[in-house]
Amino acid sequence: MHLSINFLNIAPTLFVLQVKDRHNTNKITIYDIAQKLGLSASTVSRALQNNPLINEETRNKVQELAVEMNYVPNWIASSLRKKRSNILGLIVPRTSMYFQSTAISGIQHEAHKYGFSIVIGQSDETVAMEKELVHTFFSLRVDGLLAVSSMFTTNFDHFSPFIRNNIPLVFYDRVPLDFPGYTITGDDFKGGYLATEHLIQQGCKRIAHYAGVLTCNLYQQRLAGYKAALSKYKVPFDESLVYVHNLTLDAGAEAARQIFAGSSLPDGLFAANDSSAVAFIQEARRKGIKVPEQVKVVGYSNDLSSRIISPSLSTIEQSGYKMGEKAVETLVQLINKDEKIKVTKNFVFEVELIQRESSGR
């Protein structure tokens, strides 16, 4: 299997990397487009790049015909000539995750401002696909790489093609353990602390925690914040109340069934994402357990689901859109190597508790 890009770059924008047969090559060239329109090849080339020297009417004609003829530009040859591709690679676990979709919006907006296009690859939470995407983006000669590690990524060795060749690499949100480079994260320790402290202040004395897989920096820090709040308020830590899973709806529901089958019901739950918190609330409703009267719940990320579930979900806001913008800003500064600009190596966003019905008295 070989990865290639099946899109036309007619403006700085965002594209999704897809799998395509390497033998299914496109034979259309700029010379074919030029011949059909009676233009020079250089005019067609500039029109495809939105060069302002080409009038809008001509640009539109060229771009429309290019789409009609299924023209695919040769990115590699172009980047070799210009020594820059104006493409940024982006690896995320899944574009369907609410936090990632908002971060991608910020990334696309900021990249467009700087004249870069974004190509996205999804790791699907697998290290194997993450490795393949790293090598694909390296082969595509992207100018820099943004990455969110999979939940199961334990080191950053497979990112070495970028590190060894001094191609800018920035991790945001999830970061491999001991990564020494540039990172953009939320204050996950504080988020875990605020969520747990809020439950304690609402009267909870036995607080369960849904933790993500603990190879991941986010969930280590959120668990540490949870423990710190318990310690501060002298609430005993009970390891049996920590449920480690992949934080999906199904995993959250299964953990809820385990909790409800126990002999003693917790009076609070801090879930390390909103999906698993929503699953808990839905399962509680099926069991006739009232939220927040019997169990108060706080999630994490401020997903859309947190606002439409009943009762509405208290959660931690972590500014996905702004994080995406900051990640691109940092990467572009590294690409441009402007010595006048001091680039923050490890930028941390503040987080905020949003109180809704699920944790009310």
Rg measurement, Å: 24 Å
As laid out across the biggest beta sheet, the strand order is 2-5-4-6-7-8-14
Structural class, from helix and strand content?
alpha/beta
Number of DSSP-assigned strands: 15
- CATH level 4 superfamily of one domain: Response regulator
- CATH architecture label name of one domain: 3-Layer(aba) Sandwich
Shape: elongated
Discrete helix count: 13
Task: State the assembly state of the protein chains.
Answer: single chain
Average pLDDT, to the nearest integer?
89
CATH topology of one domain: Rossmann fold
Strand content: 15-25%
Main sheet attributes: strand count, strand direction, barrel closure = 7 strands, parallel
By CATH reckoning, the class of one domain would read Alpha Beta
Q: Which percent range fits the helix content?
A: 40-55%
Distance between the first and last residues' Cα: 55 Å
What is the chain-wise order of helices and strands?
EEEHHHHEHEHEHEEHEHEHEHEHEHEE
The stretches of 5 or more residues where confidence is low (pLDDT under 50) are: 1-13, 18-25
